[in-house]
Design a protein that fits this description.
This protein has one domain. It has 4 helices and 3 strands. Strand 2 and strand 3 (about 55-60) form a beta hairpin. The protein has helices at about 10-15, 25-30, 35-45, 60-70; strands at about 20, 50-55, 55-60.
């Protein structure tokens, strides 16, 4: 039996997230796949500001909120 895909988080929910979030969570909020967002980040075409910590990447939550508010 297939499992239900959880719904994208609401804007109000995203506003409660910490200052940075995982790429997976940001992709879900944007309605795109994790792989697609990682590809955009790799190519320098990310729609939101990111922080890089060695091999780790975090999305700046405030920038994600701004992007979603403008949509």
């Amino acid at each position: 039996m297939p499992t239900a895909t959880p719904a994208a988080p609401s804007l109000d929910e995203i506003r409660t997230w910490p200052a940075t979030c995982e790429v997976t969570k940001a992709a879900k909020a944007l309605g795109i796949s994790r792989a697609h967002l990682y590809a955009q980040i790799k190519n320098g075409d990310e729609p939101v500001k990111v922080l890089r910590f060695g091999t780790r990447v975090r999305v700046i939550t405030a920038d994600l909120v701004r992007l979603l508010e403008a949509a």
